[in-house]
Design brief:
The complex is a heterotrimer of chains A (281), B (263) and C (228).
Chain A (H helix, E strand, L loop, with lengths): L13 H16 L5 E2 L13 H10 L5 E6 L6 H13 L3 E2 L8 E5 L12 E5 L13 H9 L4 H14 L10 E3 L3 E3 L9 H4 L5 E6 L4 E5 L5 E3 L26 E5 L6 E5 L2 H12 L1
Parallel strand pairs in A: 2-3, 2-4, 4-5, 5-8
Antiparallel strand pairs in A: 1-9, 6-7, 6-10, 8-9, 11-12
Helix pairs in contact in A: 1-2
Chain B lengths: L11 E10 L2 E11 L4 E5 L6 H8 L7 E8 L3 E4 L5 H9 L2 E4 L3 H4 L6 H11 L5 H14 L16 H13 L5 E5 L7 H18 L2 E6 L2 H7 L2 E6 L2 E7 H6 L4 H8 L5
Parallel strand pairs in B: 3-8, 3-9, 6-7, 7-8
Antiparallel strand pairs in B: 1-2, 1-4, 4-5, 9-10
Helix pairs in contact in B: 4-5, 4-6, 5-6, 6-7
Chain C lengths: L1 E12 L5 E13 L4 E5 L6 H8 L7 E8 L2 E4 L5 H10 L1 E4 L11 H11 L4 H14 L16 H14 L4 E5 L7 H16 L3 E5 L3 H7 L2 E4 H6 L1
Parallel strand pairs in C: 3-8, 3-9, 6-7, 7-8
Antiparallel strand pairs in C: 1-2, 1-4, 4-5
Classes of the chains: A alpha/beta (281), B alpha/beta (263), C alpha/beta (228).
Chain lengths: 281, 263, 228
Amino acid sequence: MTRGQTYNFAYLDEQTKRMIRRAILKAVAIPGYQVPFASREMPMPYGWGTGGVQVTASVLGHDDVLKVIDQGADDTTNAVSIRKFFQKTAGVETTTETANASVIQTRHRIPEEELRADQILVYQVPIPEPLRFLEPRETETRTMHALEEYGLMHVKLYEDISRHGHIATTYAYPVRVNARYIMDPSPIPKFDNPKMHRMAALQLFGAGREKRIYAIPPYTQVHSLDFEDHPFEVQQWDQACAICGAEVSFLDEIITDDAGGRMFVCSDTDFCNKRSGSTAA
Amino acid sequence: MNGSRETDSPILLAEAVSKAYGEQLGCVDISFELWPGEVLAIVGESGSGKTTLLNCLSAQLMPDRGSARYHRRNDGLRDIYAMSEAERRFLMRTDWAFVHQNPRDGLRMNVSAGANVGERLMAVGARHYGDIRARAVDWMEKVEVDTSRIDHFPRTFSGGMQQRLQIARNLVTGPRLVFMDEPTGGLDVSVQARLLDLIRGLVTRLQLSVIIVTHDLAVARLLAHRMMVMRDGRVVEQGLTDQVLDDPQHAYTQLLVSSVLQA
Amino acid sequence: MLQAEGLAKTFTLHLKDGLRLPVLSDMSFTVTSDEAVALTGPSGSGKSTLMRMLYANYRCDAGVLNVRHQGDWVNLADASARMVRTVRRETIGYVSQFLRVIPRVPTLQVVAEPLIERGAEEGHASRRASELLERLNIPAKLWDLSPVTFSGGEQQRVNIARGFAAPYPILLLDEPTASLDAENRQVVINMICEARDAGTAIVGIFHDTPARNAVCTREIDLAEKAAA
């Protein structure tokens, strides 16, 4: 496929990409720290991943192979649109296979398959500030980050336990990066949190509306916050995937009819396809 | 209890603290010593500069001139205005406490009573839910708030309960110096009496040093060992509370004292 | 225990165009331990004012007021607020005419407080407080109540119990037996004599002549002083 004549490579102009790369470098240098950047208008609405798209556009090269997932699936509207966007503006090769991709842009999931050092995972982030819901003042939250005043984050978890008997936060579960900054991992299920810890791939986070970029460099310590007597735990299912039989993956519940019929299947479609393909073969 | 009483250094030493808002004077040349276990009342009418002074002393406001040296546990007297913001904020959540007139300014209304009390513990590293909750219960008992309401939001509490909860939230980490801004303002008289009694008991039992701003001479009489009378940003008279109230020297103090309604 | 030299007091009423009311001038006297001194003189002669000056409740305009405090002499006329507090906690007790009632605080605690402020253990302090209240015939069922609603005589006895709770070397008594019935007056007189015999220096105002005669070893007549 050839790229459209009217667009610069990957849509953004070179100056903008340079500016974003500088922000990314700073983010990598200070793991978990939210770096402000001059987020651009993108030809898609906020909430569609404008932050992730700008980051992807800035790290993408001609030889890269791009995979885009939304809720783990390659075939949802959001994923398809972004994939098409880069096919058109950058002309790069795209794939649905995790192992074949060099850049993976994601919303709400981390692929089940372990990522490698030669891969980059780009997250779309709606609200980058983990302290926001308890302290609405940005001036105050920035000071709290600067001075490592993180008591408030545990207040949120405390409230969970006092109300539900356990930590009921199941997605966007706050983490501490490199024993320093507290970070919102974007709305991924907490099931995926352990995958961030010492991941071989570079993880980049882009928030378009909020104009923030942050990063976790490869092999960085990522600790999910918890209490000594209420340690961090991931979700578990009684079922295996109804399609591929996997017992270790994150499952989506799918309603199959109006009579209450339901099934549980892998949310990571590529992982599921590969497994069912190989079992079928 | 006795050991800490006779230290030979003040806990706070203010020298010539001054703050102006443009042309308007906030407070001028305020100097005093506060010793461990002492309660100092700053009284005066609204606009006298007492709140400005309190905000300067608690480093919420930077004065234009002057110094306020605080006796830290480890390294002696240190000018709080020369400290880094990080050090000051650390003090504010460990050694110091600030009780606001309006509980809305001192409580998080959208988190439970227990979390309000537990926040300072978590801020200094407590990470055991059971322990934090047990200490919250203990403090709610101390300030006479029904412990069965530990998971309720403070906005469902009465004004007096909110104020007592604010005090618990502030004292849970064992501060040494407590700033109070009209803590009984806006409360019914009966509720006020109960709160005053509670504060009085805690101050004696915990040997707290307190700087309390009030316009109510009865509050000063009940709580404070010493008082300073402020007018137009200046201290016009200071001394032992009973001395100032029973034998006022300055014309303005005499006016204040003679203006109190006798019930 | 107490040395006054040239004490003077004038009230300036700023609200009355700075009207000056001289009350005392050039007061000098000494009180030693195991002495009980009565201040006498007609009303208006400055007895209560002098008592309050001895407790540093009123300031001295001139003179020296030396008090024997923990082996040293402290001049209360120019001592720091902090020193005055220490002297009041350890050395000088004061029984005023009226109990300044603190809302909601139970009687037993009101009485025990001076001991607790000295660092006494709470159990010991409340035992001592109970003994005193019992001796002064305050019914035990009232001990848990605030003295706010007590009768004048009961409040006065609570006040005396509080004043006697801690063993002060110097005790100031302002009309301690006023508003008491005969039986309780005798109890209070006994208590004062016991304190005096145990070496406490006592300065008091007693309008009640029999009580004054029973207690005091000497009188200082303020009217005479003023005349002289």
